[in-house]
Amino acid sequence: MSAPLESEAYGAPTRSVAIHHVRAALRGARRHGVDIASLLEVASIPTELLDVPLARVSPQQFARLTQAVWQALDDELQGLGPHPLKVGTFAMMCHAVVHCSPDLRTAINRSSTFYGLFPGGSRFQLEEGAGELGSRRRRSSSTSPASTTSTTTSPSPPPSSPTVSRAG
Q: Does pTM surpass 0.85?
């Protein structure tokens, strides 16, 4: 029998979310004047945790916070995009592409087309055989925090596997 993980020994959940992500989830709500304390209360997250640099919350608390922010703003982008994306957009996109796409390639291309219908919707395209799986956002003239540039890479997929990159 293996020894318990350090977090288990102290009664902390083995899976948790860093307080940094809680602060990030609240950024758009704060910018739009939503009462942060009420959002944290709905999620059962003590307000004082925001000031503890290494604090962590459970995935359930973070999920409740995310849902509370979505409801308060009616925006799946949590107030961080250049335009709101109404709650339910992602679910509708899934209904529109998942069951009527014969393969992942088609589903990803249909997802890109779907989000292209909305102001501020994600822009991405399928790149095959690029040797890198990543996400790239390009800076735009917008002052939105969502317009920052970031790239994430992971080991190369097999040459026949499609990769996805985000554009603007």
A: no
